[in-house]
# Entry
Amino acid sequence: MKPNDSIEVVKNIGRTRADELKKLGIETVEDLIEYYPRDYEDRSSYVPVGEAEAGKINTIRGRVAASPDARRMRTMTVVSAGIADKSGTIECVWFNQPYVKNQLTAGREYSFTGKVVEKYGRLQMESPDYEPVNENSLNTGRIVPIYTVPKKMSQKVIRGCIKNAMDSVEGTLEEYMPNRIVKKHNLCDRAFAVRNIHFPESDSAFFKARRRLVFDELLFLQLHLLELKGNICGKKSNIAINKYNDKEIRKQLGFELTRSQEKVLCEIKADFKTGSVMNRLIQGDVGSGKTALAMIAAYIVISNGYQAVLMAPTDVLANQHFKSFIEVFEPLGIKCELLTSGLRKKERDRVYDNIATGCAKMIIGTHALIQDRVEYNNLGLVITDEQHRFGVRQREMLSNKGDEPHVLVMTATPIPRTLALILYGDLDISIIDELPPGRKKVDTFSVDHSYYQRLYAFIKKEVSKGRQAYIICPMIEENDKTELRSVLNYTEELDRNILPELRVSCVHGKMKNDEKQIIMEEFEKGNIDVLVSTTVIEVGINVPNASLMIIENAERFGLSTLHQLRGRVGRGSEKSYCVLVSDAKSKVAKERMSIMCKTNDGFVISEKDLKLRGPGDFFGTRQHGLPEMKIANLYKDIEILKEVQGTAIDLYNHDRELNSVENSLLKAKIFNIFTTKIKKICL
Ligand code: ADP
Ligand code: MG
# Structure
């Protein structure tokens, strides 16, 4: 049998089971043996029958005293068998599994793992897994794997299937990893790793196995990303940038760039000069001046006769960007246009025309920018403002609207460099690691709901000084009507009863775009004192006069989101405050609040966030078009990741296409993963 045979060749897998497994993306024998456990249960130590304990999951070993008994109780069949060893006896019962009766032979010894319960003053073991003793046990008397299973399949069945699949390729499972790498990194061989990840012989065998498989998975990913990057970065650019004069726009911006900004600008200009397509990520904390740099880059490209486009994740943010670009660009005679899905047809057609004729030089918008209907005249630069919201594919779709335009990606969630290499492995990375001068730290406090009266007094005080405030209410489901209603009710309550002398309004995700826009404008003009909002304002909003942010149920937000939200205040010359309101008592929740109160450094915060949440939901790897990790954990396995990155770069530099004999099996493996699997995920 071969690893790429269909799973139906495996013993005990018929059509029905094969169909169930296919739902998990398991089609071949190799897929099945690479379907790793999500957890393990230690069933390795036996408890004497007489010492079984109610409420615990125990593993026992004993003889079946007499032929099992099967009874019908109302609608249920109950099979029961007495199990005995020297220390005592216990009754095992199975519900609606009549076949058990015929599988247990009186007098034979079996091991059983199951939950012990007390019934009518006696101990029983309920629906235990069982196996004859002295056979290769899979379900009892060992460390037992737990899989994510389809509804109709039991753990026992999938364990059996995986064991059979492993047996079927025993001795034929290829070692694709070049021997040199296996030796250098002290990896165990592949067959050992696969066997021990499913059915570990010992703790140490398990750790060796896991390390090997994590190494492999991260290496495949890193090599794939290097290849993507190589393909993109090597690409010759047809955008000819000859003029680099940015004096006018600097004057227009009206401030000196920070040293960090200057450094990143140099990197951008150097990219333009190489004659290859730029693919650069700018990482920098909220307010570090990424947008200002994007403006300069766009200005340069536009002065060379091309169009530039900026895509933002939300309408509100696109509008905001549009305003800041107009302020800087229109005095320089550069025509800006805004394209969002909220535009009326007539206006939209006008914008389409202006983009197509090249009359519009700077185009700003949302996903509407990548729709089929949009045709650019001569796109030279694509900028995306991401905050983890676009995937590789959306970026690509925008790029494909031009003839290999340069690409600049901005993100305000600083992440450790090693991780950035994975998540943005296809981009070169620039970091802005300083804030413009004169920024004041936002004082942050964490309180519970008993502080309400004082909070309201605080709002009144800030407003009386001419400032404005945000109140953020989390909505977990944007479609949850009850949550929305409670936000609306709360706003009304504030407006009518609690803060009657203040002007209170609300903005939320269910509003029409132009409604949202009107409220945002009123807030910017200072015609609203207190803006109650769901997270629509999370990204990018810039109202310098707002000096107070109150975040309700703050425990519901991730740290990075809290940091983003807090970044909405402290943008003007006034002292600003952020109050996190939370009644959550858990240790993690408290720790998160305390981190927020202690630091304003986005880098530190994102690192802590990773530690507390794990990278899974943090990055949304799916959104990045990366395959889901089967076993590696990007945060916990950071040490292995570092080893892998060295190896990957080394391999890439010496044998970029992996064409040498030594690397050929590795190449085939990677090809197999990324051509068959990743396509499914991306498309
Ligand atoms: P980001 O996009 O990183 O959040 P922005 O580019 O929007 O940051 O900058 C935030 C604010 O700081 C804007 O009002 C911008 O005009 C201002 N700003 C940017 N760079 C500087 C600088 N070097 N000196 C002073 N102010 C700056
Ligand atoms: Mg910004």
Observations:
- Residues 617-624, 677-683 have pLDDT under 50 and may be disordered.
